[in-house]
Request: fold
Amino acid sequence: MNIKLITVGKLKEHYLKDGIAEYSKRIARFAKVELIEVPDEKTPEHASQAQNQQIMAKEGERIADKIGSRDYVIVLAIEGKQLPSETFSKKMSDITLSGYSTITFIIGGSLGLDERIKQRADMAISFGLLTLPHQLMRLVLIEQIYRAFMIQQGSPYHK
Reply:
């Protein structure tokens, strides 16, 4: 199994990099992890809606270039479905049993995701209505992926 995480923008915070590296290492015994950062677009301070759409479209093109044609794609979006960890774990297992070898997770930039990327997605999930920095969401997501594997293993990690 392959887990691909496509994100917009470069992660700069060392504490987040360290956490992501730790969980990636833990996941490695279950799946190959690929972390892909695509460049973000600079957003003018008082950008119009049209400018924001153009920015998301450019970022969306970069994301689309990294999605494999046979990937199962899960986007993180505020309007996505909220899942308990156990359900998320079961979904990951079901995806694999359905014949997909790569699950691709996508976290957009500060403006969100281009509509074309959302339409390409097989599933949209949300971690709640709170607004969190997209850099922090990388760590939260990778921890939940690790937790999903631990649930599948019946590990006491998830209590």
About this structure: The chain has a mean pLDDT of 95. Residues 84 and 127 are 9 Å apart (CA to CA). The chain has five helices and five strands.
